[in-house]
Amino acid sequence: MAYRSTEGTRFGFFRLRTLRELSRRETMAAVADALGISSSAVSQQIAQLEDEVGIALVERRGRGVTLTPAGQRLVVHADRIFGIVEEAKTDIAELQNIVAGDLRIATQPSAASSFIPAAMRQLAIDHPHLDIVMTTMGPAEGVAALRAWQADIVIADDISFDPHTLEGAADTLFLCRDQLFVLLPAGHRLEGEPVIELAQLRDEHWALDVASSAYSMAIRQACRDIGFEPVINGFSDSFEVVFALVEAGCSISVMPGLALRDFGEGLTVKPLAPSTYRSIYAITRRGEVRNPKVAAVLDQLVRSAPRN
After folding, report:
1. DSSP 306
2. 64, 27 Cβ separation under 8 angstroms
């Protein structure tokens, strides 16, 4: 593409955001899903941005695309631009000191089904002009949504996601610890044990919650570390399906305590030995804890999270 002067050009925020998403997702279809537009619209946004800057920003590689050096450089600047815009919004909101507007929470299902509804109910009472939308998704997907300004707070655990990988790009707030438990069908041979070690489950069939693939992988790796590969006869992203498989006597499982709020009478729950916990965090973009609405939600999440 031939060079031409870009004096007077105004880069559209949405086009810059599209390029940022493309740098992380690598296919037009994935970017389209993330932004809620068509793949052709993504291509059009990138083409318009290339026309504005006068240089190629992407190149096709098989079924995907990769950014050119110019595209990579522009993404670095876009990150700074969006960061400055968000900082400006936070400064203004802090001056106004008004808890109002929209706020989006991306959370793991176990937190969504336990303490977050109580937090939302109390926030609706305390701050009636604050509109919260909660969406369940895995931690990695949630962090991607946070970076794309599609979420404002992400609830994640340190089994499924390592908060240290954020490298200063976000703030993390500890909410609670959540103990892991073994689920057995009623009448199981281990029902009388006060606690159960993984090694005692060597010969069992397992059902695993795969709402977070990293969580199920961590459980499988823990079994491998003590010398066995768990035989899995059920994968599901629904707690209810895992409960049903265990209750029917088809499987056993290991699940976090937050997910066990409504387990049926046909299940036996025992602590995993040695006692094993995961830490639950709230993740926000760097500096946004100064925003009154973000601060109010974080404060209520801390109050609503279980203490142990």
Report:
1. P
2. yes
* 306 token code pair: 């279980």
Quote the CA–CA distance of 195 and 268 in Å, as a whole number: 11
Instruction: Write the CB contacts of 168 (distance below 8 Å, at least 6 apart in sequence).
Output: 286
Look up tokens 């044990």; give the residue. Answer: 193
Is residue 278 a contact partner of residue 177, using CB atoms and an 8 Å limit? yes
Question: Does residue 128 contact residue 158 with C-beta atoms inside 8 Å?
Answer: no
Closest CA to 279 of 175, 205, 130, 125: 175
User: What is the percent of the chain where pLDDT is above 90?
Assistant: 44
Strand ranges, E, within 48-204: 58-61, 64-67, 101-107, 130-136, 153-157, 170-185, 196-197
**Residue with tokens 């997702």, as numbered in its chain:** 25
Output DSSP code: residue 252.
B
* Cis peptide, bond prior to residue 274, ω within 30 of zero: yes
How far CA 239 is from CA of 110, 215, 263, 269, in Å, comes to 9, 13, 9, 14
Please give the backbone phi and psi of residue 6, each rounded to the nearest 5 degrees, phi first.
-110, 15
Contacts of 146 (CB under 8 A, 6+ apart): 106, 152, 153, 154, 170, 283, 284, 285
Q: Per-residue confidence at 3, pLDDT binned at 50, 70, 90? A: very low
The torsion of the CA quartet 294, 296, 297, 300, rounded to 10 degrees, works out to 160
pLDDT tens, residue by residue, 212-271: 677 888 899 999 999 999 999 998 888 889 999 999 999 999 999 998 876 667 789 999
Quick one: angle between helices 28-35 and 39-53, nearest 10?
100
pTM of the predicted protein model: 0.72
Please give the C-alpha separations between residue 8 and each of 53, 75, 79, 94, in angstroms, as whole numbers: 11, 20, 21, 33
Contacts of 69 (CB under 8 A, 6+ apart): none
Higher pLDDT, 33 or 168: 33
